[in-house]
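Work Package 4 report. The design task specified in the project plan requires that, given a folded chain encoded as structure tokens, an amino acid be chosen for each position. We show below one input record used in the internal validation round.
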């Protein structure tokens, strides 16, 4: 291969290695909640692409305790780079379980699909589950995955 071919090949590798990842995933343990019981996550949504946002959590409780679980309402607060606030409530129930054993249940809940931020930049998502549910069902933490489409 000619010398310019090697240079071109390495230039392509360099450009590809600088590409931002297509998804970002953050997790916080339950002891990292703020005084109001909220988990807080910040995401760079500077691109004008659309995004999928998924929440996941684990409950470390027995099947016996989980049998009484009817679901829980979770409060979401999206804070834009311009400090505007978008509030929403979502429902997490047994239908969101993606993996289970006798002592542990793993949940996944789509929060938004194909959403395009109206203001590009750093967005903050605050997720507040009911405090009783966190302790009673032993939520070990909560995570959020943001993927570019």
């Amino acid at each position: 291969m000619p010398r310019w071919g090697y240079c071109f090949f390495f230039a392509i590798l360099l450009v590809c290695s600088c590409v931002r990842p297509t998804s970002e995933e953050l997790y916080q343990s339950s002891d990292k909640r703020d005084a109001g019981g909220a988990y807080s996550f910040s995401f760079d949504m500077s691109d004008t692409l659309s995004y999928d946002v998924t929440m996941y959590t684990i409950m470390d409780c027995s099947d016996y305790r989980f049998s009484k679980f009817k679901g829980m309402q979770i409060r979401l607060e999206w804070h834009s780079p311009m400090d505007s606030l978008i509030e929403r409530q979502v429902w997490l129930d047994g239908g969101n379980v993606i993996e289970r054993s006798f002592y542990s249940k793993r949940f996944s809940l789509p929060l938004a699909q194909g959403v395009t931020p109206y203001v590009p930049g750093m967005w903050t998502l605050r997720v507040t589950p009911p405090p009783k549910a966190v302790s009673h069902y032993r939520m070990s933490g909560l995570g959020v995955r943001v993927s570019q489409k």
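Confidence is low (pLDDT under 50) at residues 13-18. Validation will be extended to a larger panel in the next phase.
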